[in-house]
Design goal:
This protein has 81 residues and is of the alpha+beta class. Helices cover 21% and strands 14% of the residues. The mean pLDDT is 94.
Length: 81
């Protein structure tokens, strides 16, 4: 992530690249933990959403309706040498 990125979000491509650079191979992925309601553009980044709830009390219902952040589920394997 760029040093000035204060969103707290890490992209799937970046996670895959980091794991592959460490010698792992992507073996599978799932959309089971995605949250399409998460637009990733909140004033206090990912921490605006539950469970952190870093927002004004007046906005609680709005962020509760969005739910927790969009998540990725990836499976990596370490190839045998």
């Amino acid at each position: 992530m760029p040093a000035d990125d204060k969103s707290g979000y890490v992209g799937q491509a970046q996670v895959i690249a980091m794991a592959e650079a460490a010698g792992f191979k992507l073996d599978g992925s799932s959309e089971i933990n995605t949250n399409p309601r998460d637009t990733k553009d909140y004033p206090k980044g990912v921490w605006t959403l539950p469970p952190s709830n870093s927002h004004d009390a007046a906005d609680a219902a709005r962020y509760k309706a969005i739910g927790e952040s969009d998540r990725m589920t990836l499976r990596f394997v370490k190839p045998a040498h």
